[in-house]
Design brief:
Number of strands: 12
Protein name: Chloride channel protein
InterPro entries: CBS_dom, CBS_dom_sf, Cl-channel_core, Cl_channel_volt-gated, ClC
Organism: Aedes albopictus (Asian tiger mosquito)
Helix content: 55-70%
Structural class: mainly alpha
Strand order of the largest sheet: 3-4-5
Largest sheet: 3 strands, mixed
Membrane topology: Multi-pass membrane protein
Subcellular location: Membrane
Strand content: 5-15%
Length: 937
């Protein structure tokens, strides 16, 4: 018996070396993997996690490469909240009401924060110590720290939040997309930075930044709604909401809804659509109402009152002869406003042109803000220079006292009146000197402070300058006419507070080039007794300032060189003789029918600044068919090779592999049965176990897509799967594995007698290997980024019997699985798919984009861009795309026309030069060709 067994072994080793190796290789594996089995499982799990993370990272990188944005969980959560609450009530009404309420809450919270900073500063100065040096340190330390914090915070979070915000909003409403200007991080930087800046006591305002903040809130709300309501994806609808947001910003800042709407129209738009009127009013009223109600609820106010309430005499507030004085106030305010704008622009350009200083300040970013804040805080110290400029008062208190209803220069004063006047005169000076010093200090240092890289506005400083100037004129009028002006037998007393109101409206209107400031003043004071003087002074100041200088916001646009369209000068005759063909861009980037996905992706990557692309019939015949938004093209690419399509194709491949595996298994079974019938059974025949490694490799190869399958040899006996005869060999540590067939790709089948010689350790390793190899092509429906695709449900056969008692408790597969490709297959599949032509039928094409013909005058182009608010238009010739005009080219052309450099003569001369250069180039090419022909012959 022993000899027969030995002979059997020798015969098997000589005739079937592969079977001999596969039979006894498991014994070698047992010794090799006993110690590092746990490490092997951990390495496989780690490798699969890294593979899944790399796959997700590639998907995000592709989306970011084309879109330029990332998915935000905040927007997803907010969109779900909106979809299940407010979206059921309506569209614009709820949107505008929410916008107004949010802005009112932000304004109230910021005012409370500013008040806390101001009160803390006064408390440190008054109550902490009595020593002058200690009081000075306490007075200047908090403003300097707040300014340095604000400068550092906005620089790190969002540098786009620096400055006012109205010039940029004017540019955005003209159709220009400023990068990351209306984002959430810009909102955070603007709110926190503005609170710290105003809390420091710098002569700066909050009106401009509030317009920017309201615009950001409107943009974020639109993004949230866009996730389920596509109407807000429309560019015109987005512009309408931004126009309403500008009104909300002013309304929530001053509790002036009517003036806020008019002010936003004057400041931000050239042509205003009347259909947006009700949106601005409704949102501004919601914001202003909630802002004043919050003061009643939380500050224990008696009722809803004006921000700077006055009590001027309503019976006879002014004499008709005083109207001449009010007109003079408007004239002087217009000159002063133009001077303010000119000095501001010259100072900013000086700081920018001095390269050495500019380079030094860029390296030391905190030096300039620290020096300016220290100087301003030192000058406003109450025990020093601050006693001449009411340095101990906050901005709100200063304006409220300037609007007071009594005369400061009279001798008989009540206790309350004397307390107010004590802030505006000293033992050695009177109110006139203090008002002049206050006016000059605010004039110059508001200009210097506005150049600090922090969020800030200029409306409140110029408002205070005008109020001080008007108060100065009113006090002088009282000295000249102590008993009032006599008219018609009656004496009209002089009200200096009314002059202050008129001066504030006139000077701020001159700087901003707006008349609606008068309406804001009426809403802020709660009285319209001085409506005629205010309107006269505002109109006169606007007329004078407009002749001398642009508005402050237009001046900032010129300084920053924003792509804003200037107006054509009426005296320029070139506006009728310059056509769009003279300044259009002829090298147009376009797509066409039949373009491949790969070529489309390359065009999108190379032109990330284009928000839409024209689509033509073909490159040879570029007949304009329409335009497609960049977002639509990106969505089409993602739909074509995205995760959903990839999983669908992988599932299809898996199904085909399963069918082929079943057919192969059935074929092998039939061949085994036929072979079993043809050969004679032997009592002493031994059927060795198959090569486990080769069978596992083949099983996994069957799961791969058809083009990625490996050519592997079977490496097992053709009689595998049949019932062998009883072995007469010595009994070893072997077992019968039920429920495993290596040919099955994912679910084992029952094989009654399959003998494996090896050990428990090799079986455990085989189970681990099978699990991990399956996990490489099976993934969770919603995979966890931390654990990748490894899960822990039980492995069992088709009959529900566990593979081994120990493994079923420790290793489990996820309950729900989806099939995905490997990295190599995904790359090959994407390469193949990207070579296919795009599907134009399922693409959202705008069939009527803005088009111009070559002979359209620059005046018509300017009017079209200004009224409609577009940012580009295509130029066609008999339907064929020949060029494109964007805001940049139009702006440059308008500037050249206004300066006289772009004229019909210069255009003709340029065309002749281009024709000569082209003819010369063709002649050179002809000479070179002739030379080559002669040389060759």
């Amino acid at each position: 018996m022993v000899r027969m067994a030995t002979l059997k072994k020798e015969r098997t080793r000589r005739h079937h070396p592969l079977l001999w190796d596969s039979k006894y290789s498991t014994i070698e594996m047992y010794g090799r993997y006993t110690k590092d089995l746990g490490e092997y499982a951990k390495d496989e799990a780690r490798r699969l996690r890294l593979l899944e993370r790399r796959r997700k990272k590639d998907d995000k990188a592709r989306n970011k490469e084309l879109l330029g944005v990332r998915d935000n969980k905040f927007f997803k959560a907010s969109s779900w909240l909106w979809r299940n609450t407010f979206a059921r009530l309506g569209e614009d009404w709820v949107f505008l009401a929410l916008l107004g309420i949010i802005m009112a809450l932000l304004s109230y919270v910021m005012d409370k924060g500013i008040s806390m900073c101001t009160n803390s500063r006064v408390w440190l100065y008054r109550d902490l110590t009595n020593h002058p040096v200690a009081q000075y340190l306490a007075w200047v330390s908090l403003p300097v720290c707040l300014i340095l914090f604000s400068a550092g915070f906005v620089h790190l979070v969002a540098p786009q939040s620096i400055g006012s915000g109205i010039p940029e909003m004017k540019t955005i409403l003209r159709g220009v997309a400023l990068k990351e200007y209306l984002t959430f991080k810009t909102l955070v930087a603007k709110v926190i930075g503005l609170t710290a800046t105003l809390g420091s006591g710098m002569p700066l305002g909050k009106e401009g930044p509030f317009v920017h903040i309201a615009s950001i809130v409107s943009q974020l709300l639109s993004k949230i709604i866009t996730s389920f309501q596509s109407i807000y994806e429309n560019e015109s609808r987005n512009t309408e909401m931004l126009a309403a947001a500008c009104a909300v910003g002013v309304g929530a800042c001053f509790a002036a809804p009517v003036g806020g709407v008019l002010f936003s129209i004057e400041v931000t738009t050239t042509y205003f659509a009347v259909r947006n009127y009700w949106r601005g009013f409704f949102a501004a009223v919601c914001g202003a109402t909630v802002f004043r109600l919050l003061a009643v609820w939380f500050q224990k106010a008696d009722t809803v009152t004006a921000l700077f309430a006055t009590n001027f005499t309503a019976d006879f507030p002014f004499d008709p002869q005083e109207l001449f004085v009010f007109a003079l106030i408007g004239l002087v305010s217009g000159l002063g406003g133009a001077l303010y704008v000119w000095v501001h622009r010259k100072y900013v350009l000086f700081m920018r042109s001095n390269k050495r200083m500019n380079k030094f300040l860029q390296k030391n970013r905190f030096l300039y803000p620290g020096i300016v804040s220290l100087i301003v805080a030192t000058l406003s110290f109450p025990l020093g220079f601050g006693q001449f400029i009411a340095g101990e008062l906050s901005t709100h208190e200063q304006v409220h006292q300037l609007f007071s209803n009594f005369t400061w220069s009279k001798n008989e004063l009540t206790v309350e009146q004397a307390a107010i006047v004590s802030n505006w005169r000293t033992a050695g000076t009177n109110v006139f000197i203090n008002l002049i010093v206050y006016l000059l200090f605010t004039f110059f240092f508001s200009i210097v402070a506005s150049t600090i890289p922090v969020p800030s506005g200029i409306f409140i400083p110029v408002f205070k300058i005008g109020a001080a100037f008007g108060r100065l004129v009113g006090e002088a009028m009282h000295l000249w006419f102590p008993y009032g002006v006599r008219y018609g037998g009656k004496l009209a007393p002089i009200i200096p507070g009314g002059y202050s109101v008129v001066g504030a409206a006139a000077f701020s209107g001159a700087v901003t080039h707006t008349v609606s400031v008068g309406v804001i003043v009426f809403e802020m004071t709660g009285q319209i007794t001085h409506i005629v003087p205010v309107m006269i002074a505002s109109l006169v100041s606007n007329a004078v300032a407009a002749l001398l200088q642009p508005s402050m916001y237009d001046s900032i646009i010129l300084i920053k060189k924003l792509p804003y369209l200037p107006d054509l000068l009426p005296s320029g005759s070139g506006m009728y003789n310059i056509y769009v063909e003279d300044f259009m861009v002829r090298n147009v980037k376009f797509i066409w029918k039949g373009i491949s996905y790969q070529k489309l992706k390359e065009i999108l990557k190379a032109n990330k600044g284009l928000r839409s692309l024209p689509i033509v019939d073909s490159p040879e015949s570029p007949v304009l068919l329409g335009s497609v938004q960049r977002y639509e093209l990106i969505k089409m690419i993602d739909k074509h090779i995205g995760r959903e399509k990839r999983l669908e194709v992988a599932a299809k491949w898996m199904k085909e592999a399963e069918e082929k595996a079943r057919e192969e298994q059935e074929r092998l079974r039939r061949e085994a049965e036929e072979l079993q019938k043809t050969r004679r059974p032997s009592r002493f025949e031994v059927s060795p176990a198959p090569d486990i490694l080769k069978l596992r490799e083949r099983a996994n190869n069957e799961m791969l897509p058809p083009q990625a399958k490996k050519e592997t040899s079977t490496g097992f006996s053709p009689v595998f799967g049949t019932q062998p005869k009883k072995s007469i060999l010595k009994k070893t540590n072997s077992f019968t594995l039920k429920g495993f067939t290596p040919l099955s790709p994912h679910s084992p089948t029952h094989t009654p007698y399959t003998t494996i010689t090896g050990g428990t350790e090799s079986r455990i390793r085989s189970a681990f290997d099978i699990i991990f190899r399956k996990s490489a092509t099976l993934q969770d429906v919603t995979p966890d980024p931390e654990v990748g695709s490894i899960g822990t449900p039980s492995i069992s056969g088709t009959e529900g019997i566990p593979l081994t008692p120990g493994i079923s408790k420790k290793v489990q597969l996820p309950r729900e699985r989806v099939i995905d490709m490997s990295a190599e297959d995904q790359k090959a599949w994407e390469l193949e798919e990207m070579g296919k032509p795009i599907d134009v039928e399922n693409l959202h094409i705008d069939p009527a984009p803005f088009q111009l013909v070559e002979r359209t005058s620059i005046l018509k182009v300017h009017s079209l861009f200004s009224m409609v608010g577009i940012n580009h238009a295509y130029v066609t010739n008999v339907g064929k795309l020949v060029g494109v005009v964007a805001l940049k080219e139009l702006r440059q052309a308008i500037e050249n026309v206004n300066s006289g450099t772009l004229t019909p003569e210069s255009v003709k001369q340029k065309q002749e030069e281009e024709a000569k250069a082209l003819a010369q180039k063709e002649a050179e090419n002809g000479d070179r060709l002739t030379f080559l022909v002669v040389a060759k012959s």
